[in-house]
UniProtKB/TrEMBL annotation:
Signal peptide: none
InterPro entries given in the database record: H-NOX_domain_sf, Heme_NO-bd, NO_sig/Golgi_transp_ligand-bd
Protein name: Heme transporter CcmB
Residues in coiled coil: none
Domain of life: Bacteria
Residues in Heme NO-binding domain copies: 2-160
Molecular function terms from GO: heme binding
Pfam families, A to Z: HNOB (PF07700)
Amino acid sequence: MKGIVFTEFLDLVEEKFGLEMVDKIINDSNLDSGGVYTSVGTYKFSEMLQLLQHLSENTDISIDNLLLVYAEHFFSVLEKSYPGLLASYSDPIEMLSSIENHIHIEVRKIYPDAELPTFEVVEKSKNSLTLIYKSSRAMHHFGLGLMNKTFEHFNAKATILLEKLKEDGTEVRFTINKK
């Protein structure tokens, strides 16, 4: 997992819960990195799971809800860092349907060894989209949060249904209906 995911996560934890919480979740975890991350480094996903688990335990916020909040934070990082990418779209359905054939291609230019989930477009119309998310990392609520922020970015509203196709969350169907 790319380091930017870790550095931004720890920035969010510091912003929302304080530096003491950052220290606590790092110290409570058994991290090969020692909790020292660079945005361009690559780290084990198990480290993110430990950090999320310890944050959840210390805040009584579910991991899924933490991932939703983190996605909102991460979207703002994307808005600031890659405004041209977002500006190339005028509609949230178009943007979300192009994750595989445009957005992930651009991400791989910056982070060639990034392990990204896949988003298969099953059905698409002007106001609806069905995607199948597949990843060895069950971070579908992070994806859901990014989708929510995508609609907010375009001043649009939608209902987004998440259905686990595999119990462990490694395969999920998102059904999106623009209002």
